[in-house]
Design brief:
Strand content of chain A: under 5%
Distance between the termini of chain B: 137 Å
Number of helices of chain B: 8
Radius of gyration of chain A: 22 Å
Number of strands of chain A: 0
Low-confidence stretches of chain B: none
Distance between the termini of chain A: 50 Å
Order of helices and strands of chain B: HHEEEEEEHHHHHH
Mean pLDDT of chain B: 81
Mean pLDDT of chain A: 90
Order of helices and strands of chain A: HHHHHHHHH
Oligomer: heterodimer
Largest sheet of chain A: none
Number of domains of chain A: 1
Low-confidence stretches of chain A: none
Largest sheet of chain B: 6 strands, mixed
Helix content of chain A: over 70%
């Protein structure tokens, strides 16, 4: 390979990456704009939004609740045995807030949504592309982003935030109920200690993270779905890519938000 | 059609609304806990430094948070003005003469701002100035016992708080030892005018005085002994005479019969125109004079005895101090073992008069 060909390949790759980046940014802002305007045009795809919330939020509630209960019980057990052994039993509540409300709650919810809904959205939209449904929407003057992407984005974002609230409820209070079977603690004492540590800022941080994660998951999934071109074999690949990209971006965003919180 | 598809709208509505209600309840409960709906009363204070305090720092009293710092600013006098609030639930505790105390953990466990309520009856007006414990105002309130600072209940803090005075005492002791050693060295070099130098000088003077006194006493004692020898010689002679007289009296053919003989010596003596009598009177007068001399000598000795005793006592004290100094010097420079405690032997008697001879 000559130097000229090598340079040409690098230049082409760079150009394609830059094009893909700007295309993705353009897609992101377009989806964001259509999502904001969605409620103004509520006749468009409202049913899609409801079904998306039903699928992404309501149907994921069970697994989210089990996960929250398990983590909450584990932290309660650690706090009531290990931490109490060091005379730091009250740190259990701080640990509970950090893990359930601030850090793991939104992130685990995001993983659940990625695994369930991210792949589903990507493969569904990919299948629609392969079946030329998107072309049909465009042909009849329906913007596929407005009708297909925006309700899914909103559905995933709303579901994420709602699931995070339930994750907190099950993680903080459901685990208390389970703990009564293993190691009873007075409810008033538990609530008093928990409320002393828990702040509105913790709740808001969890919600902000879930909002960001929801946007990431939905935009990446719809983007990957629309990126399918013509073959059905591209559909599962789109799903896999949607999961991989969403995972990475969610973790990076979580680290960035945590850094902003603790360094800011 | 599946149930959840048929009633999707209701399920989603309930799902979202319930989450919204839970969130709102949580926010209200936490807001109440964070005193969003309660009134705070503002006060001011002034600290020498902003170290250990920051906006949001809790103000505690007896382990309860009664308020918090809202704002700190560095003023024109390079002091830190502090605006803080007391919660309405603890406003009754904010009495006149209250003070703030910043307690910093000596083992690096952070600091704590404590509120000590004054003993005044009246409540602090909002916006009033509350001095800190280390400020002159706070010190004045503490000295006047208008406010109490309870002892810290943290054992480590209490222990470490006691370490500082101990270290200061040790430091002072080391400084004092250094000064003493310096003084001792200077005194021994004859350069000091201080107490130790005076002691050494006094000891030297005393020793010289003792030597002179001993010489004087020796002279006086020699003269007294010489006089006593003369006296003893006289007494011996008298005793010999008395023995001879006694022997003579025992002999029937001796002196007494002769004396008793009407023609003997008695008569001769009685008829000697008082010559013998006068001679006896003279002898008695001489004897009386000798006894007076002995009495005056004894009186002189008695008068000198307290002086001698005091001199000997001073000598003993000086020698004891000299022993201490020498012992300290022996242990110098590290003061190994220091100057041992010496137990003084109480004198058996103060003067010859007290002695049971």
């Amino acid at each position: 390979m000559t130097l000229g060909l090598w340079l040409e390949r690098i230049g082409r790759t760079l150009r394609e990456r830059l094009y893909g980046l700007f295309y993705g940014l353009g897609y992101f802002f377009n989806v964001l704009k259509e999502s904001i305007l969605f409620f103004k045009r509520r006749q468009v795809g409202f049913r899609v939004l409801v079904m998306q919330i039903l699928f992404t939020g309501y149907e994921a509630l069970r697994i989210s609740a089990v996960l929250a209960l398990a983590i909450g019980v584990a932290i309660n057990l650690i706090g009531s045995s290990l931490l109490a052994g060091f005379g730091q039993g009250k740190l259990m509540y701080t640990l509970l807030i950090i893990v359930i409300t601030r850090e793991l709650g939104p992130l685990l919810t995001a993983f659940i949504v990625i695994a369930r809904s991210g792949t589903a959205i990507a493969t569904e939209l990919g299948g629609m592309v392969v079946a030329h449904e998107i072309e049909a929407y465009v042909a009849v003057g329906v913007n596929p982003i407005t009708y297909l992407a925006a309700p899914r984005v909103l559905g995933v974002v709303i579901s994420m935030m709602v699931l995070t609230v339930y994750f907190n409820v099950f993680g903080l209070f459901g685990s208390f109920a389970v703990m009564q079977l293993l190691k009873p603690v007075a409810f008033q004492e538990y609530m008093k200690n928990l409320v002393e540590v828990l702040t509105v800022g913790d709740l808001l941080l969890g919600l902000v993270k879930s909002l960001v994660f929801g946007v990431i998951i939905s935009v990446v999934s719809t983007y990957r779905g629309f990126a399918v071109e013509r073959s059905t074999t591209e559909v599962p690949v789109a799903g896999i890519r949607a999961v991989g990209t969403s995972f990475i971006l969610c973790i990076v965003a979580d680290a960035a938000l945590t850094a902003v919180l603790y360094l800011g | 059609m599946k149930f959840r598809i048929k009633y999707a709208d209701r399920i989603v509505g309930l799902f979202v609304v319930l989450a919204a209600v839970l969130l709102c309840v949580s926010v209200v409960v936490l807001g109440g806990n964070q005193r969003w709906f309660a009134r705070n009363y503002h006060f001011t204070s002034r600290f020498a430094s902003g170290g250990g305090i920051a906006p949001g720092t809790a103000i505690n009293m007896k382990g309860f948070q009664v308020g918090k710092i809202e704002r700190i600013t560095l003023n024109a006098d390079n002091e830190v003005d502090v605006d803080f609030v007391i919660y309405d639930t603890y406003l009754e505790k904010a009495k006149h003469n209250s003070i703030l105390e910043l307690v910093t953990s000596p083992i690096g466990l952070g600091s704590q701002l404590l509120f000590h309520p004054g003993k005044g009856e009246a409540r602090l007006e909002e916006g009033a100035f509350v001095p800190t414990a280390d400020s002159p105002e706070g010190q004045a309130l503490l000295e006047q016992e208008l406010v109490d600072i309870p002892p810290k209940d943290d054992t480590i803090t209490r222990l470490l708080a006691n370490v500082n005075p101990l270290l200061e005492n040790v430091n002072k002791t080391v400084v004092t030892v250094n000064r003493t050693l310096t003084e001792v060295n200077r005194a021994l070099a004859g350069q000091s005018s201080g107490p130790l130098g005076q002691i050494v000088g006094d000891a030297a003077d005393t020793m010289a005085g003792v030597e002179a006194l001993v010489v004087g006493v020796k002279d006086q004692a020699q003269s007294v002994v010489a006089k006593a020898d003369d006296l003893v010689s006289s007494i011996n002679r008298i005793t010999l005479n008395l023995e001879a007289t006694t022997e003579a009296l025992r002999d029937p053919t001796g002196l007494v019969p002769k004396l008793l003989d009407p023609k003997g010596s008695i008569k001769t003596i009685l008829d000697d125109k008082n010559a013998l009598y006068n001679s006896l009177i003279g002898s008695l007068a001489e004897t009386q004079k000798t006894l007076r001399n002995i009495q005056s000598m004894t009186t002189t000795l008695n008068a000198q005895m307290p002086t001698i005793a005091a001199t000997l006592e001073e000598t003993r004290t000086a020698i004891g101090k000299a022993q201490d100094v020498l012992e300290g010097l022996k242990n110098n420079p590290l003061l190994r073992g220091g100057i041992p405690e010496r137990r003084d032997q109480a004198p058996v008697y103060q003067s010859l008069r007290d002695a049971e001879l």
